[in-house]
Structures are given as structure tokens and as C-alpha cells.
Design goal:
about 210 residues; alpha/beta; Spore Coat Polysaccharide Biosynthesis Protein SpsA, Chain A; about 15% strand; globular
Length: about 210
């Protein structure tokens, strides 16, 4: 099975607010770099058919489209889960039988091999499946088989909400790059140690908190 991924991205001016104190003026650039490295890794994964990014940010939209993503405006403008439903609906309007997965935009260390394992695990059972983040509180990926509504419940303790909704938890070992979302300087240091993508690494190398000069 090949998957259509939906990646939501806030306008860069307000994205990754928890990095504002440590990254300063580089925060928006980091948010874009995270998304670029995430989308590039996803597009390189053989289990991924296409990637749709939902964003109202013109710079991010142009940069991610240049990588090969389809970009949709966030027409609902009603938060993360509304954006994900909008993206999933757009994918299935074009291909009603699509297998759809929501993927966080802040996985800069994502490796295609890890994503492939996660998507294969999602395809191994019916209905919906999800991958918890490294903290075991949130969610980094939610997958819905063909004909199954995505029904996203991201934000905060979304692992518990996805479990309660009947989604199956994916509990693979060794897919750390797919679990490591980045909200803080500490998260970024871990992502860099895992092997962040080139755009994130280039910006982080200039930041003292990430181990740069």
C-alpha cells in the first residue's frame, strides 16, 4: 500500500513559539527547515505516493511545492485538526480510495526507512493507526485505511484521544526519527544527535543552544 500524507504547517511567523526564546530571529527559519526536511524525507519514502501540505504561509508553500509537495491553503482556518480534515478530504476528492496519513511538520530527523516501517505497520491492520511521539503523550502520525475517515485529534495529550477513538497504536522499536518532533531547544538537540536533515542542520549549526558556535 502507498500512502498520501497530509502535513499541516502554521504560518512561519507564529510557528514553533516555544523556540522563540532560544532561537530568536532564527525561529521562523527553523520552522521552515523542519518542514522542508520532513517533507523531503517523506517524498523519498517508497511507501509514500504524494504529500499535501496545508498552509497559508506563502514562503513555506513555495518552498515545499518546489520539493514536490502539493500545497493547499488552510481554508477552514480553524486549527490543526480542521486543516488535517481539509487536506484529507482534498486528497480523497481526487482519489476516493486513497490511504491517507497525517504527519507532523516538525520531524527534521525523519528517515524514509523509519517512515516506511511505520506506514507498513499501519497497513497491516484495518481502520486507523497512530504513532505516539517520543514523550508518549502526543502523536506524530495518524493513518487511515482506504474508506476510513482520518478523524484527527492532534494537540496536547493526543495519544490518549487517538486510543480512545479506536485507533490502533503502532509500537515499533527503532523508529526514533519518526517520533522525534521538535518543540524546544532540548528536542532539537536530540534531533540533531539522531541526524537532522541538511536544512535544519545548517541553521542549527549557527545556534549556540544547539551546539553551534
Amino acid at each position: 500500500m502507498r500512502w498520501s500524507l497530509v502535513v499541516p504547517l502554521k504560518p512561519l511567523a507564529v510557528a514553533k513559539s516555544r523556540l522563540a526564546g532560544s532561537a530568536g530571529a532564527a525561529r521562523a527559519g527553523l520552522a521552515l527547515a523542519f518542514a522542508q526536511d520532513t517533507v523531503a524525507a517523506a517524498l523519498a519514502c517508497p511507501a509514500v505516493r504524494d504529500v499535501t501540505v496545508v498552509t497559508d504561509d506563502p514562503l513555506a508553500g513555495a518552498e515545499l511545492a518546489a520539493l514536490g509537495a502539493r500545497v493547499l491553503p488552510d481554508d477552514p482556518a480553524a486549527g490543526l485538526n480542521a486543516a488535517l480534515r481539509h487536506g484529507a478530504d482534498a486528497v480523497r476528492a481526487r482519489r476516493p480510495g486513497a490511504a491517507v496519513a497525517a504527519l507532523n511538520a516538525d520531524l527534521p530527523a525523519l528517515r524514509g526507512a523509519d517512515l516506511h516501517q511505520v506506514l507498513d505497520a499501519a497497513a497491516s491492520g484495518p481502520g486507523r493507526a497512530f504513532l505516539a511521539d517520543a514523550a508518549g503523550i502526543g502523536t506524530t502520525l495518524l493513518a487511515a485505511a482506504p474508506g476510513v475517515p482520518l478523524a484527527p485529534a492532534f494537540g496536547g495529550p493526543s495519544r490518549d484521544r487517538h486510543l480512545a477513538s479506536g485507533a490502533r497504536e503502532i509500537t515499533l522499536p527503532g523508529v526514533d526519527s519518526a517520533r522525534r518532533d521538535v518543540d524546544t531547544a532540548a528536542d532539537l538537540r536530540v534531533a540533531l544527535a539522531l541526524g537532522a536533515g541538511p536544512r535544519t542542520a545548517a541553521i542549527a549549526a549557527r545556534l549556540v543552544f544547539a551546539g553551534g558556535r
